[in-house]
Specification:
alpha+beta, six-stranded antiparallel β-barrel, 3 helices, 14 strands, disordered C terminus
């Protein structure tokens, strides 16, 4: 041992023996190594199915959350558009409120919606509703927590408008069959062209002036007709909005007893 420690006399013998012993050690450990490898490499079918099911559930949850985030993103963009439309006309009203559409009237000849704001939010009959792209309608019935609004395409709705190009005034009434508007009582020689933008004129005491109402899409000026037939496509996406904007005009007030328009400085009814 002293000679091996000092002079490494047995290194050659040790190396020779290791050549013989190492294969034997490998053969002895081989069954245990194979067992360990097999236990790690081969998993039962049930375990794989369980893991696959768990991963599938997690994937579905992540996809559901992603869709919810996409919906929230779209809703946020819509709200930003609503508020942006407010900024453009901020001098025409003093208060705004976002309302959510709860239901839509299924009657094909009536275009009405129910919103989640009522007298608890100071909503009043005749109050205008707008969207990110233009006018939507007005409130026709108010409850404590909900209200019913009539869309501008309802046949009972009339909207005073004017041509944004030349200022020509008119009245647009609803056409529920085609979800459009008709500009009525216009002479056949009227100065209206396809693509003209019609905006609210501010007359009629309901809607503040300057809000987009629709674009002219078709004009029929047949001389045999008493008036021109003018079809207007609403600028607001009436069948897609989920939120609407209630506005309180600052230059108009509604006389609740007769529905007459009075200015804030004059509470007497106009004759």
């Amino acid at each position: 041992m002293v000679l091996d420690h000092r002079y490494h006399a047995t290194n050659f013998i040790r190396s020779t023996l290791s050549v013989v012993v190492d294969p034997l050690r490998y053969l002895v450990n081989l069954p245990f190594d194979i067992t360990d490898w097999a236990s790690q490499s081969f998993v039962s079918r049930s375990t794989l199915q369980e893991e696959n099911q768990t991963l599938r559930i997690k994937n579905e949850l992540l996809n559901a959350r992603l869709q919810k985030y996409a919906s929230l993103k779209a809703e946020n963009a819509n709200l930003r558009s609503l508020l942006k439309s407010v900024d453009k006309n901020e001098e025409s009203f003093e208060q705004v409120l976002v309302a959510e559409i709860l239901s839509v009237d299924l009657d094909p000849f009536r275009k009405q919606i129910v919103i989640n704001k009522g007298t608890d939010a100071n909503v009043y009959i005749g109050q205008p509703l707008i969207g990110a792209q233009g006018v939507i309608g007005k409130v026709v019935h108010v409850g404590h927590m909900t209200s019913t609004a009539m869309l501008i395409t309802d046949p009972s709705h009339s909207l005073p408008v004017q041509n944004n190009r030349n200022g020509v005034r008119g009245v647009a009434v609803g056409n529920p069959k085609k979800n459009q508007l008709s500009l009525i009582h216009q002479p056949t020689n009227t100065d209206i062209k396809q693509g003209d933008l019609l905006v609210t004129s501010g007359l009629g005491c309901f809607f503040p002036p300057g809000y987009p109402a629709g674009k002219v899409t078709n004009i029929n000026t047949n001389p045999s007709l008493p008036f021109a037939e003018i079809i207007v496509e609403p600028t607001a996406q009436l069948d897609r909005n989920r939120e609407v904007l209630l506005i309180w005009p600052s230059h108009y007030q509604m006389a609740q007893e007769h529905g007459e328009c009075v200015t804030p400085g004059n509470k007497e009814k106009k004759q």
